[in-house]
Amino acid sequence: MQTIKMWFIQYIPGLYIFRMPVGIIDIIEIILLSFLVYTILVWIKNTRAWTLLKGIIFLGFFVALIYLFHMDTLIFIINKGLNIAIIAAIIIFQPELRKALEILGEKMFLVNIFGSGNEKDVEQRCSDKTVNELVRATVEMAKVKTGALIVLEQNETLEEYERTGIDLDALVSSQLLINIFEHNTPLHDGAVIIKGDKIRSATCYLPLSENLSLSKALGTRHRAGVGISEVTDSVTIIVSEETGKISIAQRGRLRHNVQEEELRTCLVALQNKVPVTKKGIPGVGILRKKGKESDEA
């Protein structure tokens, strides 16, 4: 014990690594850098950038060998092409970089400091009647295997995506939703965007998710539902045309085989402005361990 005590007295006031003094600021810097690297790795794990990272690691090993054996010609080529490679990477992966900045901008500590500017009043949330109409329409469409894609706007505006569709500005009703998604009708393609108690637009185009962990069996409808939930805080209800199963997409995650009561619980939680976290809406279990999160369409 005395030996351990003496060790702390000797080394803690000023740690030395490779004979270089390391202070508290250096330790904090190392921790922050480690957290930053870990966060970046987690983020790119399910994107196209993951493949790029593996290529960069291999290329880095190759460059190290070049410098180790002093291959002057290759070193000259690498030095001249480095700036071009960086600019090319920025252009190629512009969508991923934009998404990363959007994620950074929506963090709660930034919202608390600067304000999001998108806060909605309580009256803008959907009513009990709207919840019932949404549940009724979703369940009815699931029974007859009518494909549907319904996006529920939350704090972040969806006007950018509303403009890609046809304006409706109609009160939410189960019959209207069923008619919209009925086969061979003019409005059945694309997504319906709902804000509060109103259907704002139909036939809207949504961004497709490029998440590599999603099952390849999933169709465009499911990928669009996940895609819009990745770039906004919206919640998307999806009905599979092949299986009739209901899915919910939130925060880039997809919950399959959602039952009627679970769907109702989700909508009630949204209606009551329950805070949404990375774990999903409390009491809903979109990411809940209960039940299986299958990859069926």
From TrEMBL:
Any GO molecular function: diadenylate cyclase activity
Transmembrane annotation, as ranges: 20-44, 51-69, 75-93
Enzyme class: transferase
InterPro entries: C-di-AMP_synthase, CdaA, CdaA_N, DisA, DNA_integrity_DisA_N_sf, DNA_integrity_scan_DisA_N
Catalytic reaction list: 2 ATP = 3',3'-c-di-AMP + 2 diphosphate
Domain DAC: 94-260
EC number: 2.7.7.85
Keyword set, alphabetical order: ATP-binding, Cell membrane, Membrane, Nucleotide-binding, Nucleotidyltransferase, Transferase, Transmembrane, Transmembrane helix
Pfam families listed in its UniProt record: CdaA_N, DAC
Described function: Catalyzes the condensation of 2 ATP molecules into cyclic di-AMP (c-di-AMP), a second messenger used to regulate differing processes in different bacteria.
Similarity comment: family membership: Belongs to the adenylate cyclase family. DacA/CdaA subfamily.
Subunit text: Probably a homodimer.
Protein name: Diadenylate cyclase
Native source species: Muricoprocola aceti
Lineage, top ranks: Bacteria, Bacillati, Bacillota, Clostridia, Lachnospirales
